[in-house]
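Let us practice reading a record.
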Amino acid sequence: MYNLANMQNIVQKISEQYKKPAVVDVRSGDTVKVHQKIREGSKERIQIFQGLVIRTDRKNSHTSRITVRRIASGVGVEKSFMLHSPLVVKVEVTKRSKVRRNYLSYMRARTGKAARLANVEFDKDVINNSPDEIIAAAEAKKAEIAAKAAEAEAKKAIESQEAEPATDSKAEIEQSPKKEQPSEAKKAEDSDTK
């Protein structure tokens, strides 16, 4: 009656429409800043929620989700964010830690020094900038370098054009026969005839 493969293709096409082109690679154990749109009446603002990612779900799906935990006024607060949601403006990874699990439920029971995780070094620029931004920045740099090179070539061409006529005019002056200056005797004869 229904073609299951066809239905899955349709569902996949629809879910691809709602995916963001690039999302930050967030892992469990990361400390992140999530910039979220908050609408209050007719006003809209960005709220930043910073905390530890204790869970990541369905990474390749349009319903991929992270659960972020922080301690606010001595009380643990957890929030789940859909990464492809239009309300999530940006996710910044500020710190990456070494963990061996996907779901860090044990962090709920730990406080103070017991809640520390071992840091791992990582390149913040590469992780936080989406591939599209990195490519766009690289293309902008290439375009800027090409523009500077073209400008330098144009200056050289202008300088060489200005230098060539000056040398040509000197050569023409040297090659052209010199006009003889009238001697004083000829000047005197001309004045006598007048």
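A brief commentary: The beta strands are 31-40, 43-57, 65-72, 75-82, 88-97, 119-120.
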